[in-house]
Queue: 2 jobs
Job 1
Amino acid sequence: MNVRIDDTFVCESANVAKGAIYAVDAGASVISMSLGCTTASRFSRGAFDYATSHNVLAVNAAANEFSFHQNFQSVFDDVMTIGANVPDNRNLTTTWRQKASFSNYGAHLDVVAPSDVPGASMGLSGAEPNDTAYTGTASGTSSSTPHAAGVAALVFSRARDLIAASLLPVGPLALKDISAQEVRQIINQTADDITPADGTSYAVSVGWDKYTGYGRINAKRAVDRVAANTIPPEADINSPDWYTLVDGTVTVRFYANARWASSFAYTLEVGGGVEPTSFSSLASAAGVAANPALSSANRVDNFSAGWNTASLANGLYTLRLRVTDNLGNAGEDRMAVWVRHPDPQDQPGFPRHFDGSLESLSVALVDLDDDNELEIIFADGNGEIHAVRSDGSDLPGFPVHTDLPRNLPLATSPAFDGNPANGEVPVAYTPIIGGVAVADLDRDGQQEIVVGASDGQLYCWHADASVCAGFPVSTDHGTSRDQYPPHAQIPNASRGEGIGATPALGDLDGDGKLEIIVGAVDQKLYVWHADGTRMAPFPIALFDAGSAPGVSTFAPKAIISSAAVADVDNDGVNDIVVGTTESYSSPQFAPGVGGSGRAYLVHANGTIAAGWPVKPTSINPASVPLVAEGVGTSPVLANVGGDAKLEAALTAFLGDATIYKADGSTFATMQGAPFGATGAGSDLDETTPEGGLARSSDQPSHFYVAEGAFADLAGTGLLDYVAGEVGNGLLGFATDDGTPVVFDHLLSVWSATTGTQVPAFPRVMEDWQFFTGPAVADITGDGLPEIMATSGGFFVHAFNAAGLEPTGWPKLTGQWQTSTPSVGDLDGDGTVEVVQTTRLGTLFVWKTAGGACQTDQWRKFRHDEWNTGTFGKDTRRPARITDLGAAGGAGTVTLSWTAVGDDGRCGTAASYDLRASATPITRANFASTTPVGIAPPAAAGAAESRTFAPPAGTLFFALRAIDEAGNAGPIATVGPLTLRRVRLTHAGAGQDRLSLTARIAALLAPLGLPGQNVTLVLRSGATQFYSATVPAAALVPNARGTRVRFRDPTGTLANGITSLVMGGRTRTDVTIRARHLSLGGAAAGPFTAILRIGSLELSATGTLRAAGPRLVLP
């Protein structure tokens, strides 16, 4: 059966999971996939666990990327990875034991299978091909995988024929069939080992190697192995999983059995590297009785062993399980994992692992809860959006999530029937690829989080995890192309067209609120207002009217490029710059070579600017659907020319990065040669970091699918352009697919003004920089920035302008990164952290010495939290004032506080927004309160006070700082808190007691009670000596809602507080008692009590006086 799962082999994981479940339920024995999914989830992993539970073997193509990285579903434990082999020479073939140059390789490779498939017209000369008639009809690991699936099907069929004929006895077996694990073992164990004696061009070895796995599949040997006494035992290492990070003593769990024999022996061992030269035993046993009640379909661990990694160096290690039955048959499994000991620069609480992949290109660092510490906000392959605090904990209310994937068979498939015996599949939500945008969309003082998902919906949540009114919204419903003749158009009645790009935010209509701008796979550019309504005339279809009559309804060209938003032409209105995956034969890269892509400058009124679209040329502008097609990467903007207009940097896959003027003319082309410096190139070892200089033979370099950034690396005021590239050696693939293609992945830096490559660059990277881009910030504290860059390889680098990396860099992740590093001061300690996510679900945070108040360069994907892609754009708001106090005078009020900055606590804000009211001021009513004009701010950290005559009848005040870009900080509030009585009893450390009564000139409801945390803070002079918080959930209201009460005789729930009562009919009286305290910091003299109710802060001052062992007021 053929199961349609997507429009292309670059697939969405939920669709693959649904397809796998359908295939299993329809009776498949083998699932053949030539796919590379953009995400992974507990749902997609669970679908292949479900397949194993139903004795179905899944195989997937290794991919054609000349790489070792970790594609989905190839790195799922229950999926075989199939590489490609080709003839040693297309015209003078002597052997089919040559690894295909393009075929991915690495620790997770099982076997290789033929790729260049002979055509029907291929003649034979005896037993050998007639080379003069040789043609290839298919190539790539996509054509290799069906061969392996076919062999698997033959093995299943042979076993079932023998069982039906009673030649393969199954009487004592619970699974009366050959198991999927046994089929996998047969394919691996009967493969033709490719060794140095075969004359291959790769460094293969006897036995398993990373280039050809266990060897080339052999259908006859596999089928012949199916007999009563020759079926191999099962061997399966279940945990740790592929490329997991381990430390300390690790429990290795595995399954071993010999169902067709009476007993077996096993050895579990470990060795260093992908291809260890030696192994050390971790566990072994002999004479173990076979268990006919078990099979791989049970998905159990029947053995485990401890592995102490404490004395091992960081690096990749291979676990190997070998099982031999009493008949002499052998089975084997391998699992590669990373030993990674804690890094001295790891932020406490990290790294943290999630069960969904973390491709989210945009990871935002934003203060959501107004505590002046940044949360890490990102999306995952489960369709969940996380907000993680600087200590690694989740912000309350998070994660939030998208909707369930459409058309799940929840009521029809045993996968969801609630019976664990059927292999229950966990559900995940619609995946997110592009990432998050975060801003105060409607300017109400609360941040919003925006994401687009593959179901064509755009989602929005407030910082408190509530859904924004009017959301989610959907793209237009369209049709999907059936890849099989007659290529019918299938209506997408249940979903909009998918969103793979990252939303950008900007004010397009001039009302001060932000619009949401994003393209979709239907070749349309969408714009929504902050309330979820569409902005006219959007959506608009983007196509080059001079090259095409319109958008093809048969196969529209997706917009996966994230839009850049800024006033490009200096007319006072923001514009949009975005690329599409269109590709055309004209103009060409060179006469008769390649073609071109398209990128557009779109005005806020929906018209395309004169001189656009621009047409960047490429050697091959349509190599891989979506991934390497047209202008799939995202334009970036900066004022490079020094006039009032902005320039845009962009290009097509395998072209030269080009900077365009606002009128569409070329400002500068980034030159692929000469390099700024050359060196030895890569060491071709995926387990060690690169970072050196590129080999000279790789000139000229070419842009591909990495993202770009602008920065001033030398501090001269002149901008550089930074982007990932690929060396010219890649083009050697065009001449032959069996000869090794030697090329490097590069991080290039050019003078944005001249287009020449700067000295000390390009630097060599480990792997493709798919959709990731550089972040640029000072992480050493020397005042000059570093470039943080990563790839499909296993490291994160940091290069300064001289190409050097600071001590402790590069950082080991052991996994593939598509997200760009993000930089910010998470914990408010004055230095920045670097945040990185991986496709296998790990979140890293590293502390650095870079100052928080540094010159902004390019701190994350698309530069800023709004994803504008614009150098110099200010989207960071001032910090929240935390020490606002009030004192009354004769007809006046004096407010005092410490100044915050322009960006957080850095710089000088532009103005203050002070409000007064007779009732408590909240974010919701702030705009309706009375403004009070006061003098502008001083520099961050300065002590400030303002004395003014308050508007008549006002009791409460709120203050926020506003920067020169109009970004407003969170509000700080203060109101009348009258201290009536304070008693602090010093009875010895741990035995001190507190009693406090106070009065608030407002009722509970305007204070937000019940439903808010209540925090008490006490200060002696400027020194805080006590703080305790009573959680909102612990405050019990009375029937009328006029009083709340907290009781805890033990004092363990709220730092010693045993009783808190608040309420009254005309005002709120407060009584707090606490004991078992240590109040040594309290002293006679000036005293401040602060009562925080949610975000509302009430404070009062007085003077404590000594009275024996007590301090009292009055």
Job 2
Amino acid sequence: MPGINDYINRLRNGLFSNRKQLSGVAFIDLEVTLDGKRVHDFGAMKEPENEFHSPSKQDFIQFVADAEFLCGHNIIQHDLKYLSDFEEITRKKAIDTLFLSPLLFPKRPYHKLLKDDKLQTEEVNNPLNDCLKARDLFYDEVNAFRALPQELQCIYYGLLHQEKKFSAFFDYLQFHSIDEILEPLILKVFQGKICVHSPINMLVSEHRIELAYALALISTGDNYSVTPPWLLHQFPEIENILKLLCSTPCHDQHCGHCEDKLNIYNGLKDVFGFDEFRTYDGEPLQEKSVQAAVNGESLLAIFPTGGGKSLTFQLPAILTGRAVHGLTVVISPLQSLMKDQVDNLAEQGITEAVTINGLLDPVSRANAFDRVADGSATLLYIAPEMLRSKTIEKLLLSRNVVRFVIDEAHCFSSWGQDFRVDYLYIGDFIRNLQEKKKLTSPIPVSCFTATAKQKVITDIRDYFKRKLDVDLELFASSSARKNLQYSVLYAETEEEKYNTLRNLLMGNPCPTIVYVSRTRKTRELAQKLTSDGIDALPFNGKMESNEKIANQNDFIANRVQVMVATSAFGMGVDKKDVGMVIHYDISDSLENYVQEAGRAGRDPKTAAKCYVLYSDHDLDKHFILLNQTKVSISEIQQVWSAIKSFTKQRKHISCSALEIARQAGWNDEVPDIETRVRTAIAALEEAGYVSRGNNVPHVFATGIMVKNMDEAHKHINNSKLFIDDKEKQNAVRIIKSLISSKSRATAIDDDAESRVDYLADRLGLSKGEVISTISLMRQEGILADSKDMSAYIEHSENRTKQVFEQFAKLELFILNTLADMELNFSFKEINEKASEAKIASSIKRIKTLLYYLSVKSYIRKKENVYSGMVSAVLCQESEKTIQRCQRRHDICRFIIDRLYASAIANPQSAEQSGSLVQFSVITLLKELEAYQNSVLFQSQEKYHIEEIEDALLYLSKIGALRLEGGFLVIYNAMEVHRLKEMKYRYKLEDYRMLDEFYRQKRQQIHIVGEYANMMVRDYNAALQYVQDYFQMDYKKFISKYFKGERLEEIERNITPEKYRKLFGTLSEKQRSIIDDKQSKYIVVAAGPGSGKTRVLVHKLASLLLLEDVKHEQLLMLTFSRAAATEFKQRLIELIGNAASFVEIKTFHAFSFDLLGRIGNLEESEDVVRRAAEMIEHGEAEQGRINKAVLVIDEAQDMDKDEYVLVRALMNNNEEMRVIAVGDDDQNIYEFRGSDSRYMQAFIDEMQAVKYEMTENYRSRQQIVSFANCFAQGIRHRMKTSPCIAVSKDPGMVQITQYESEHLEIPLVNNVLATYSNERACVLTNKNEEAARIVGLLTKQGIRAKLIQSNEGFRFSNLAEVRYFLKHVNQNQDSPIISDEQWMQAKQETLLNYETSTCLDYVKVFFEDFEKTNRTKYRSDLMEFAFESNLEDFCGEDHQTVFVSTIHKAKGREFDTVYMLLDGERADNDEQIRKLYVGMTRAKQRLFIHCNTNVFSNIKTEGVEYRQDTNLYPLPEEITIPLTHKDVYLDYFKGKKEQILKLRSGQPLCFDDGYLRLPSGGKVACISNKIREELQGWAEKGYFVKSAKINFIVAWKGKEDVEETAVLLPELMLIKSMN
């Protein structure tokens, strides 16, 4: 080249002349205040040994006055701006060692005095010391420049001598050159190191500084040296220049650089040792993708299993990393797969890859960070959630990121088989990273997935176009695997499946993978195969890492034939000789099935077989699993409500996922609870409701108080706070890191290197260790005490103190209750005891305290979620535990006082309803120590920082204050900012994306099931089906293969067969209610016999199976225990044992649960009101009241309190659906406050959708017509249409009107004449009438049974029931009653009370509980017994005439009904409704006996009307059952043992107001009221003939301590013949 040689000759003649003497240079450094507003210290030095250190600016100016050059580190952008007012300073030439260092020390290990942009020093706040460091660095920079080749000196001069940051350096050296011919000189000097077609002239013209730095890095010849982070930040174009020079293939074979560094074929051989790329049935998919990546294009590759995906991004990453010192970031969802890939590369001698994930120990994690930071890693594997880490962001900002690789890219699409909301943040992260790096062109992206249909491909490409304006080039194969033979074998039973599997394995002895759907099944099946002589090992994602690796290696090495695995096995495992893949359970999508089956026959020359052992029941497992793992819209709404609750006063919070889950009312035992919360938050973020910040702990190591490391060492070694050498070593490492980075960061600076997570990651310590060490160094005075915590406190100090004192009292009560022994108790039980002790208690509070006490190791506890039972024991002896607790309480009181004092002193901290007080834990400790000898504190024992932290945690947990920042949020903490106002609700349209994903998941299960069935019918058609699935437009695929009814079926979360079985027999009207999934509020006005119970049971099944409502999100409230049991029993029969976990309660039982009280008669009157108040005041346990759906049975029977409770639940759950079912025509409990207008209010006030069920499946035509006509007299009816009899049978209605006052005898005569052993019932208005009828029927030889109530006592108070409960609860070592315990207690009860007439009730009690409780929890049994009534257990006997009042017969039905209506009228709605209920109990025949003209105006065709003018007497025998009110209760006191020896049904003698045994002993005394009543009967000629024991019950007076056994007799009166 002409000119170049001349240039070289000039160089030889010397370019350095008249160099200035060093005395012309002054080295300077300034120390400024933390706020950056002024200089508080000056340092300077001149040679020889002339030093200056003073706070005087004038003296400083005078000291440097004679210097021509000012030199220092970062003085151009920092120090000199504070001296700009002094002209004598601005005239001087500035030499900045900061900008020279990357140019002259670009190669690792760089310069010993440098760390990134900072001087390495062991002293802080000493400007003179920094001057000395700058001087030494400058010497070395001068020498380094002199040592450069002369051509490179000329290049640097030509590029930089006119730039302000460098001109003084060349002036100082008196270096001169020419720059007209830079391009050829650069190409000559960097021949083979850069592309010959690089745009040098353009770069020289536009980016001189950046080009110089890029060339400096290239000149190192070291692939692992990197551009310092600070330089990338200031000159972001360096990255693009490196790409233009070194990583833009020109494909010119004469270009030495591109042929050597960027030739993919040479790279394949050099890096991996392969001679050629892998093809897929002749398609060079791998080669094309690699070339596109090396060319810098963004791409989407659809790589089949075994298609060499990993190499496709690893090779470009390594080539580009070596060419431009760049970093490729691989984002993958599987941590184990990341590690496997890094290990596999290491085994091949490729060490450029690292992974940073949660499985790494702190040391390995720190090593990975160091390798990325220092450039020795060119491949970084991370999970998408890691992008939330501020440290990861800082790390990536420090490197030249050349590409992002996204594995499993189908996770972007809601149409993909594994959509993950974490992936949706990737685009935002990359965009933010590009903005912070100030990049002018986007970072390329490579997306990979093994299988993807067209819609998924479109979604992925649209996502990156929308987020990053990047077009992804598609690389996909259209060919199919030719070496795989597919087969589906039907196997209906488990035994049939296993035998088929075993036969296949024995007949094909080759390496085989057997896929199952559940982790537990991997071990069970592997063990069974091994016992049958087939070597098999399990593999699942929940196994220990060592076991997984060992099993995997054994399979790869052919030491075992079979691997029984979940889908987690096979990813990244390259075993080419797998001859068979057997799906013991079919996959949940075609994508997953093709991917898993594709792990067979990876060697194209090997023929392999793929079997599916299929039953339609397999799909049910996938539907159930989908429902369990789905994050429903109601759950997201609950998380949104929780966030709104947390952010009422302030729009941002910092808290853990677990805290949000608890506030949302989720149970801690929910699987993957934190993942579910994060998914919900991501969905809220995507919809614009919240923004989630980085996972940043708000603890900082700031304000270094020692001058240098020597002083720090001395403090640490002499300190008594550090208990061992490890703590001291940690302290030394942390303070050294802080001093060396010369950090002056504050908590406002998120990028501070003093942040805890950064220190932990870089030093290989846990966050807990860093926090602890920083705290100790603050106490020791090595670090300044910082107010890095804040507490939000309410304005009312009194309320805060009241909350604390209530909790403190309850906590001491709990600890005293535990004493020194392990206890098993229910939450209700301990809450009951606390309430009795006059302590403000609730289950919510008890759970909060037990959680804290367990976390802080006061107690060890085990909790059973479903039973509400807890097992707990103190960790220390009782006295020490209580002392520790009381000491903490004292500290809490002190903290509350100090925080409120601080709030008063700083009124600017006040907000709308509270104050945000900033404080320091260390300061609190010191203030506490200062007051240790005051009246408040009697203990002289020294306080520790941990005690302050424990007290703060305690106050936070009990809600006395809310903490932000500090040590309490370092573990899995999230920053969440609420963007939308409180009034906004998360709606269905917001849920669209997730809803679409779950819809696709449902359809995919149906689609893979269709494939299995098609494979049996037509092999080739099934293969075409799969090909169409992946290549056709999805909607066209669906329309081709799923037509008509099938199109509806694939929308359901259930197989067609199961749907027909469950819902196929419903009527059109019933089906419309079941299918209504959109209406928020539904009211069903259901006429008698319309199948209300059936519809409700099927609606519950639909909610669980079709509408994705989880059992814990569903609540059903009823008005009787019998109804609750019937619903539970029928639901179990319909859908199986999953129904056992659905909460179906009476209003009273639910209310007692909320109050945490055991049901009792005394409190039952106002328990519902109190429960509603508890919800309204925010005191109820969230997990009990946060529901997605509320179902109300017999809604017309709600009274005011019950309606208020429902409204409280609705207010607590903004999006809760309510389904209220009832019949206002059957509201017959107005006397106790029931009112159907509360049911009507759902329609009037909440615009509920109303359905009318008027088809009567119970009664025959005449009965329905007569009832319709009679009910027309009711005003304001909800149903607008009359009921219609489904049966065509006319049935029979007969009405007999009497003139007689007494109707018992003619009614019994009617029964005798018409009864034919069908199920029949006599209905009366009064209990006395019913008793008389029973007596008459029995006397006539007809088996009669009184449906009687237990007026005045609970069923659980029956002596027989008490006996059973006592024996079944004898050994309460478990919350569950074993079958052996149950049977033993049952047999003892039946034997002991074999003569009791109440035994039939008890037997039905046993049967009913057993039917609905496969697992028998003690708490469930106690509630079942307490909620039950006698009439619940009357049984279903045929050939028995039941006798009941109309009220007790509600909800029942009989073939024949006889109604005795003595003096009955129908003057008002209440009377009409009562009679309407009675007549609609009849199915076939209705006989009405009345002595008024109540029905005279009712004329219905077919009804038979009769007149009877006979006068009938009262029956000769009258039965009078006595209640508590009819006997003297105090009479039984002291006779408990005697009474309990008696049995119901045992005869008694009546003797002048006393009841005695036949042997003579008195056992009861009747009341004066009954004496008067008997006198009245005597006047009519009736006298007591005999008596018997009706019931023996437990009773306790209000003032009594112990219970008394009470005998309730029955008197038989007979009419005297005189």
